[in-house]
Amino acid sequence: MIYPITLIPSVSWPFDLASINNTMPADPEVLARMSTVKHIILVLSGKGGVGKSTVASQLAVGLLSKGNKVGVLDIDLCGPSLPRMFGVQNANIHNCDEGWVPVYLHEQRLAIMSIAFLLEHEDDAVVWRGPKKTAMIKQMLTDVRWGELDYLIIDTPPGTSDEHLTIVKALAGVNPDGAVLVTTPQGVALADVRREASFCKKAKLPILGVVENMSGFVCPHCEECYNLFSTGGGERLATEIGSPFLGRVPIDPGFGDAVGQGKSFQDEETSGQTRTAIKTVLENVLAQVPQTP
């Protein structure tokens, strides 16, 4: 016998998402740490494998090249990849009187914090349930000595679950500038990123715009860009959700190799098209962020 399935009319959240940035009390410890940070940008997607960490790392590099002091916080606890993208996967963090000292690069103008620095071995799995993840993310916000930063870029895991609820709730009262949504042009990715946009709107987290990553393929020989797969999906999604389209970044073998070796889009392995594309994304992000003296 086949029984009818009762559909769930709506998702029941553990708390009113819309009230996070309006009525929930701010955490005084987080407020104290973040008081020296001018701008906070979250990089979100909803879909795994679309290049969130790549976008986050290259935004940080671009901001650094403009003379800013930048912090990068990796809250992808089960899949931390930012340390490798910055070439510091073998580094360790240390304690001081003011808390954890992040890993520094570029004469201490770039600060990086990731759970990868706390693992005994790089390949160790982090097998944690929600409460443990929540505690670690809060500790990264309250116990790390970030110091004065112009920008803090927060790289998140895919989805709209524990890590995302925790970071948005923890930043209540801090008023982050908003979220950069990363997608690929394909419909499967767009569906998940659409859910991420819904999360942002329910949490009243501003959406700075949409990046269409892996859009086209740059030939390593002639540097022509070919649309091997679909293109334009990210731009259509941005229009659909009423957010700015920040630009599209192609698949570039040279760029991929450079990032995997701890380099950046500014290195010679990256094609001119990709460098221009990432610079465009950066400028469009900055155009959405209110500038402070």
SSE blueprint:
Elements (H helix, E strand, L loop, with lengths): L27 H7 L2 E8 L7 H14 L4 E5 L7 H4 L8 E3 L2 E3 L1 E3 L4 E5 L15 H13 L6 E7 L6 H9 L7 E6 L3 H16 L4 E12 L6 E2 L6 H9 L3 E7 L1 H8 L11 H17 L5
Parallel strand pairs: 1-7, 1-8, 2-6, 2-7, 8-9, 9-11
Antiparallel strand pairs: 3-4, 5-6, 9-10
Helix pairs in contact: 2-9, 4-5, 6-7
Describe this structure in words.
- Strands 1, 2, 5, 6, 7, 8, 9, 10 and 11 form a nine-stranded mixed β-sheet that branches.
- The protein contains nine helices and eleven strands.
- With 293 residues, the protein is an alpha/beta fold.
Unreliable stretches covering 5 or more consecutive residues: 5-13
User: What is the molecular shape?
Assistant: globular
Structural class: alpha/beta
Order of H and E elements? HEHEHEEEEHEHEHEEHEHH
How far is the N terminus from the C terminus?
69 Å
In percent, how helical is the residue content? 25-40%
Strand content: 15-25%
Number of strands: 11
Rg calc: 19 Å
Q: So how many helices?
A: 9
Mean pLDDT: 88
Features:
alpha/beta; 21% strand; 293 residues; 11 strands; 33% helix
Brief write-up:
Helices cover 33% and strands 21% of the residues.
